[in-house]
Amino acid sequence: MRKIFNWVLGPDFPAFGIFIYLSLCFLISSVLCSFIPNDPSPIVKPSPMAEMAARYAWIQAPGAGESGAIFQTRTTDGKLVTFVWTCSHLWLDYPGTTDALGNTVPPSPASIKIVVEIRGKKYPAKLVALGSDTDGGTDCALLVLATNPPNVKSVQFITGTPRVGSRLAYIGGALGFHTPPEFFVGDISALNRRTEIGYADIMQCPGEPGCSGSAIYDADGNCEGLMQAMDLGNSCLSLEVPSRRIIKWAWVSKVAWALDPTLAAPAVIPPYK
Question: How far apart are CA 75 and CA 190, in angstroms?
Answer without folding.
Answer: 38
